[in-house]
Amino acid sequence: MTERFESAQHWFTVLDVAARARFGSERTDHLVDELRLMAETIARVFAEPLDFDDEPPVDVLSERPGNP
Amino acid sequence: MNGIAQLSIREIPARIRQRDLSVLELLQATIERIERTDSFLQAWVELDREGALREAERLDHLAERGTVLPLHGVPVGLKDVIDVAGLPTRAGFAPLGDHPAQADAAIVARLRELGALILGKTHTTQLAFADPAPTRNPWALDRTPGGSSSGSAAAVAARQVPLAVGTQTAGSVLRPAAYCGVVGFKPSLGWFSLQGVIPLAWTLDHLGLFARSVEDVAYTYVALCAHQRLELPLLSEPPRLLFLVDFLELTEPEVAEHLHDVVRRLREAGARVEERRLPVDVQLLLAVHHTIMLAEMGALHQQALERHPGAYGPRLRAAVEVGQIVPASAVLHARRLRRRLASLLDDFLARADAAILPTASGPAPDRSTTGDRRFQAVWTLLGTPAISIPSGLTRAGLPLALQLVARYGHDRRLLHVAAWCERILPGLPPPPLA
Q1: Is A38 in contact with B340 (Cβ distance < 8 A)?
Q2: Are B383 and A64 in contact (CB under 8 A)?
């Protein structure tokens, strides 16, 4: 994962631009705290690398042992 | 407090079988109690007096003919995101209107099969998220009962009903149970059908039970699951527990001190308790949970938010809006991590019968919030069974609770461990307002 993907500031910029396009500037100004939290959250998620071949995006339940 | 309100869930059908009690008497006492206490507690959105009366008469006729079911006459409150045929499911969200549900949710149908008396709907935070419900905490009216299953927890704590059902997508069963001083149990993900339940985030939503004791919860759970495979053995010796110290670093000092005292008592009673750290960072688990939850909420509310933006509470609206712009790459990354984390934690939890940690970082806060979901959300993400047991009171007289979690699918063993621990703990008196 690149350093940019692990940067909360990068993700805040991405989210802020998306929010302004979707909800308008006035509403986005109300969302700043939530956007900042989500930016930090996304950066934390991307800071954890995955093995693309061994960890495909499948549903959690389908591979659980003992799933009723 | 009248004697009927103190009966355990197991005792109710037993007393009906012995003809010591009729369902009608039980219903009348329950309604009187709710009417006396709910003006200040506000646990109930709607009581179905007529429906419950008809059902009580039917159950009494059945009992007269010799048929007494496992939950015969047990009054139940249902969080108002769960469909009951003939009653509206409002979920605290005005656009859903007052249209009655056409059919019972699967859990309601199962409760009826077992003879439970469906009494009505309990308050939820709006659509089971985080904007506080009107419900008060029976231990202190200025405190939150927790959320989102606020009314269900408060109703059981105030001895209005012995059993209530809620849902949990982050911490909405265990946290209100802890704040209200009752037992809250969330079975493994997918164990109870969510058919007929308004979703919040599809892959995280669970149903859960509230009762006054582990025995009541276990009795109900086994009755509900009678058709399912329950292969786990009874405890033959005191349990092995992993004491998760990571969480103690995030608690208020009084909670940490209390949990150390609880662990000391359990050790003195024979439990083998090892202090351990999780094999992964708690913040990563919470980040994965938050990403998936908000993205699913955003998708779920795509149309409703466009049509009814003004109907949303501020916390729910903000979460849905942010969820709608989370990049797909982040959501997929989080889902893949979820699978890895579930596997890692399953290996970790396999080292003992259960892990022990506080249910919440502190006692119930004021009513501006529904409390801290971090300690419960981790286990919701992983889909493991989790139970909250009252374990004492703060110096200010508010309930504290311990949380036990076990491997996915080991629900019944967790209940056995919880019952063992509950016997060691002092137990709480009824709340001052009960």
Answers
A1: no
A2: yes
Boundaries of every domain in chain B:
1-434
**pLDDT in the model for residue A5:** 74
d(CA B213, CA B215): 5
What is residue A59's predicted lDDT score, i.e. its pLDDT?
A: 53
Assembly ipTM = 0.93
Q: What percent of chain B has pLDDT over 90?
A: 95
**Regarding the domain delimited by B1-434, which CATH topology (the fold level of the hierarchy) does it fall under?**
Amidase signature (AS) enzymes (3.90.1300)
Q: With 90 as the cut, is the pLDDT of residue B272 above it?
A: yes
Q: How far is B80 from chain A (nearest CA, A)?
A: 26
Out of A34, A55, A58, whose CB is closest to B322? A34
Q: Across the beta sheet with B399-405, what order do the strands follow?
A: B44-47, B117-122, B75-79, B163-168, B206-211, B183-186, B386-393, B399-405, B354-358, B240-244, B272-276
Instruction: Look up residue B10 and give its two tokens.
Output: 């197991």
Label the pairing between strands B163-168 and B75-79: parallel
At position B340, the amino acid (one-letter code) is R
The CA dihedral of A41, A44, A49, A53, to the nearest 10 degrees, is -10
Asked if A41's CB is within 8 angstroms of B291's CB, the reply is yes
pTM of the full structure: 0.95
Whether residue A15 and residue B191 make contact (CB cut-off 8 A), yes or no, is: no
Classify residue B149 by its DSSP letter.
S
Dist. CA B150–CA B176, nearest whole Å? 6
- Sorted by where each begins, the domain ranges of chain A are 4-48
Q: Find chain B residues with C-beta within 8 A of A35's C-beta.
A: 322
Which residues of B are known to be catalytic? 79, 148, 172
